[in-house]
Design goal:
Low-confidence stretches: none
Structural class: mainly alpha
Number of helices: 12
Keywords: Membrane, Transmembrane, Transmembrane helix
Order of helices and strands: HHHHHEHHHHHHHE
GO molecular function: transmembrane transporter activity
Protein name: MFS transporter
Distance between the termini: 28 Å
Helix content: over 70%
CATH class: Mainly Alpha
Shape: globular
CATH superfamily: MFS general substrate transporter like domains
Strand content: under 5%
CATH topology: Growth Hormone, Chain: A
InterPro entries: MFS (IPR011701), MFS_Cyanate_Porter (IPR052524), MFS_trans_sf (IPR036259)
């Protein structure tokens, strides 16, 4: 958290060099925090994994919605200073570090066993979790990066497109909290994955092809679906792991490989749009990613654990 705060300060105080280097440092910090959170849930809340995953996923979605909606107003409030608009987010990072500090004092001076986890890269279930994480994240990246442009291309104003995306993100908050909790009430998570992926694809195709008059409904449907897909991807890391050590390693694999896979989606959308000059062909990308995520999710949603060895070093 302190490294994150340092990155945020760096990118707002030292011009273009600080902007890029600080963003790199902040991004790396967020990556480490994201990998560790599922293992902390597994360690501290082993019997409430669904509920706690929903809570912190909801916080992620809410934070993203607030940041996206307030970045420009903050800069405008401070006479158009983008540096202050970016530097403002140093404050919540420091507050989070302050709240986390008591956790570090509790373990200070306490010996912590170190475990080595073997066999994760050879386990099919681990790869199924990773593929689901990557493919559903790719759809999310496409929505965040390209949905406003798609909507503007269909005839909406930039302001209307931005508001619609914000509404979709806000809808994610509700499903991100509720879906993991409900999904852990059944024998496995396959039905929940089928439901949220179906909602996501329906919302995506509605935003791409449906009449403009009903786009708010499709965007809300998309948000409900994507909030559920993301929170379930994180919940699967916890649920498919026997202990917190396995969860930390599976989280690293799923998010490391998964986000690498996810990064190809927005690039593919840009290439297809440049080649065709239209947004209509993007539906094929939505279909391939969505169906792939559904298949991977149905495999990863089975009530199993990854088969690995976890040994104390």
């Amino acid at each position: 958290l302190l490294t994150l705060a340092a990155g945020l300060a760096l990118r707002s105080l030292f011009g273009e060099v600080g902007l890029f280097s600080g963003s790199l440092l902040a991004g790396a910090s967020i990556g480490v925090i994201g990998v560790l959170l599922p293992s902390i849930v597994k360690r501290d809340f082993p019997h409430k994994a669904g509920a706690m995953t929903g809570v912190y996923t909801m916080a992620l979605c809410l934070g993203a919605a607030i940041a996206a909606g307030s970045a420009v107003p903050l800069s405008q409030y401070f006479d158009g200073s983008w540096q202050i608009g970016l530097g403002f987010w140093l404050i919540p990072a420091l507050i989070a570090a302050l709240f986390w500090y008591p956790q570090t004092r509790e373990v200070h001076g306490t010996h912590r066993d170190v475990y080595r986890v073997r066999g994760l890269l050879r386990d099919p279930l681990a790869w199924q979790v990773t593929l689901y994480m990557g493919l559903q994240s790719s759809l999310s990246y496409i929505v965040f990066g390209w949905l406003p442009s798609i909507l503007i291309g269909r005839g909406m104003t930039p302001t209307e497109a931005g508001l619609l995306l914000s509404g979709s993100i806000i809808a994610q908050v509700v499903s991100a909290l509720a879906i993991p909790y409900l999904a852990t009430r059944g024998k496995d998570q396959r039905l929940a994955i089928m439901l949220v992926m179906s909602l996501t694809l329906t919302g995506l195709f509605g935003c791409l092809y449906a009449p403009l008059g009903g786009l708010w409904g499709w965007a809300i449907l998309l948000g409900i679906g994507q909030g559920g897909t993301f929170s379930l991807a994180l919940a699967l890391i916890v649920l498919r792991s026997r202990d917190s050590h396995v969860a930390a390693n599976l989280s690293s694999m799923a998010q490391g490989f998964g986000y690498t896979i996810a990064s190809t989606g927005p690039f593919a959308v840009g290439v297809v749009h440049d080649m065709t000059g239209s947004w209509n062909a993007i539906g094929w990308i939505f279909a391939v990613l969505g169906i792939g995520a559904m298949i991977a999710g149905l495999c990863a949603g089975r009530a199993l654990h990854v088969q690995v060895s976890s040994e104390k070093v």
